[in-house]
Design a protein that fits this description.
The protein is α+β, with helices and mostly antiparallel strands. Helix 2 runs parallel beside helix 13, helix 3 packs across helix 5 and helix 5 (236-259) packs antiparallel against helix 13. It is built from 18 helices and 12 strands. The strands form 3 sheets. The chain has a 6-stranded antiparallel beta sheet with strand order 3-2-4-10-7-8, with no helix packed on it. Strands 1-12-5-9 form a 4-stranded antiparallel beta sheet.
Length: 545
């Protein structure tokens, strides 16, 4: 949390520390726009050309368009090195000053050149002294190519003429604002992938492939969600490993999705622009599917009654199979069409839905405090509040970003907040698996099962005064674990186990008699008596329920 706060402070300070008073010499407010399929320039506001305010009245237009502006540069600015700057054009462009090419960002597809987008880079073009008409009328043209979705100016921004040194620093700051959060998130994803691979490889090595595949496909089976089959297979260890495997796939997809937004991706990763346009929507749906494979059972359980109510509707509409169907739909679209279907609005809607689902599961956990035993109340409370905190964080910071005065920084901050919200969501899903694994809990905890949940734990702790560790060892014995398996499971020494068993004996089967149990045969007999005692206790508890 401290790292996130410090990063936000750094980003704000880094983008606002330079005063603009004497650095911006001229703001270019009056622009004209002509699309390739039109013959004349028309006055336009500084907006994308599909906006009503653009003056050209087009919809779903992809191709070339030219922005043009006329302005005077006073003679008293001859001593300065001047440049043109604007924060964002969609997708790539080539700039002309007084009829001469002065630079490009990305590559526009002309003269058999391959297209490359430059949408995430600010535009900075030097104005050569020899081309400037001092005190005369100068013309600047931006030939823009849009591959998909909106084209032209990304948002209402402020194109300017100013001192090159200052504008170069301004462009560098914007690159940092775009790349730094993504580099940090990319690094986090790699660390989490490493941790999960380590756990999964150990579990998969000692289990059968057929059983592993059964648990892998179960969350995607929407029919099984409404099936009343009581003989469903259950292996907590394998199921946990499978959920970690979903997490590995989720974070691999996430890392590739983030890499698609690096401004340096063409120089480091390469691949065609068609790939970079089609991969984000496809990968987003893959990630959404595996994220739901982790979260959905935690919120709605493994079985939902087929009734017309909110829970059933929510369980169906948020089932992983829905994301899988959308993934198949996007997979067969052309790259530009896939990107058109993948708007920033769709990303935000999906993220908020997932956030609300997580928040709802947090409320479920807090309500479940009434039905769990004392040793679990603290853990469940913390994990429940952690999930609810996500909603508070996301909505508060996002709402703040809407009112940030600088539109360029506001646009970047909103995107970065989405990334942080998404990665927090992904990390929380891994915490959810770890939480279930640590306490061997299958979520959701349902209130109607009050007496059946952890009843042995409760009786052993409340009536027999066993500690949490002692209760856990007793529970493992009840599940059929022998001494060696308990030592491996709990990661304790043989002597520690002996000490714990000695304490359990004294509090349960041997309350009134204290005897030396160092003798191996006596120790074995006591262990058998303890297991019998625990089974009898479990039967009485179930009868009471």
């Amino acid at each position: 949390m401290r790292v996130v706060i410090l990063l936000i402070i750094f980003l704000f300070s880094n983008c606002s520390c330079i005063k603009e008073n004497d650095k911006i010499l001229l703001t270019l407010k009056n622009w004209e726009l002509k699309l390739d399929k039109q013959n004349i320039f028309k006055p336009t506001e500084i907006v994308n050309w599909e906006s009503i305010k653009s003056g050209v009245k087009v919809k779903d237009y992809n191709g070339f368009g030219t922005y043009r502006t006329f302005f005077r540069i006073p003679k008293n600015l001859q001593n300065f090195e001047l440049a043109f700057y604007t924060p964002c054009l969609d997708d790539s462009d080539k700039a002309y000053f007084n009829g001469n090419a002065i630079g490009n960002t990305g590559i526009i597809p002309e003269n058999s050149m391959k297209f490359e987008s430059g949408v995430r880079e600010a535009r900075l073009y030097r104005l050569p002294d020899g081309l400037i008409k001092w005190d005369g009328i100068n013309v600047l043209e931006l030939k823009v190519y849009d591959y998909s979705s909106i084209g032209g100016f990304c948002y209402n921004q402020k194109p300017v003429i100013g001192k090159y040194e200052y504008l170069h620093q301004k462009k560098r700051n914007q690159l940092i604002l775009n790349n730094l959060p993504r580099v940090l998130i990319f690094s986090i994803t790699l660390l989490l992938i490493g941790y999960m691979i380590q756990y999964c490889s150990y579990i998969f090595f000692k289990n059968k492939f057929k059983e592993i595949m059964y648990f892998f496909w179960t969350p995607l089976n929407i029919i099984a969600l409404f099936s009343k089959n009581e003989n469903i297979k259950y292996n907590f260890e394998v199921e946990t490993a499978i959920r970690y495997l979903y997490g590995i796939i989720l974070f691999i997809v996430c890392s590739f999705f983030i890499s698609s937004e690096f401004t340096f991706k063409y120089h480091v990763i390469g691949l065609s622009e068609e790939f970079w346009f089609k991969y984000p929507p496809v990968s987003f749906q893959i990630g959404q599917m595996f994220l739901l494979c982790i979260i959905h059972p935690d919120v709605f359980g493994r079985h939902v009654e087929l009734k017309l109510n909110f829970q059933t509707i929510a369980a169906i509409t948020t089932h992983p199979i829905v994301s899988f169907l959308v993934f198949l739909y996007l997979l067969f679209l052309r790259p530009e069409d896939a990107w058109n279907q993948f708007s920033i609005t769709a990303i935000f809607v999906n993220t908020w839905i997932m956030t609300i689902i997580f928040g709802y599961s947090g409320i479920q956990l807090l309500r479940a405090r009434k039905i769990v035993e004392s040793h679990l109340v603290k853990a469940i409370t913390q994990h429940g509040f952690l999930r609810i905190w996500l909603i508070f964080f996301a909505f508060t910071i996002y709402s703040f970003s809407l009112y940030f005065p600088n539109p360029s920084i506001r646009f970047q901050i909103r995107e970065n907040i989405f990334l942080f919200t998404a990665i927090i969501l992904y990390i929380l899903s891994i915490f959810s698996i770890y939480f279930s694994q640590k306490y061997e809990i299958r979520l959701p905890l349902k209130l109607e099962k009050k007496k059946k949940l952890f009843s042995i734990y409760a009786i052993l702790q409340n009536e027999f005064k066993l500690t949490y560790q002692e209760s856990d060892i007793a529970n493992l014995l009840l599940q059929g674990f022998d001494r060696s398996k308990i030592i491996n499971k709990k990661k304790i020494t043989e002597q520690t186990l002996k000490n714990q068993l000695r304490s359990i004996y004294s509090k349960t089967i041997d309350k009134e008699i204290e005897e030396n149990i160092e003798n191996k045969s006596k120790n074995r007999r006591k262990l058998s008596r303890l297991i019998s005692f625990l089974h009898d206790l479990e039967k009485k508890t179930n009868q009471g329920n």
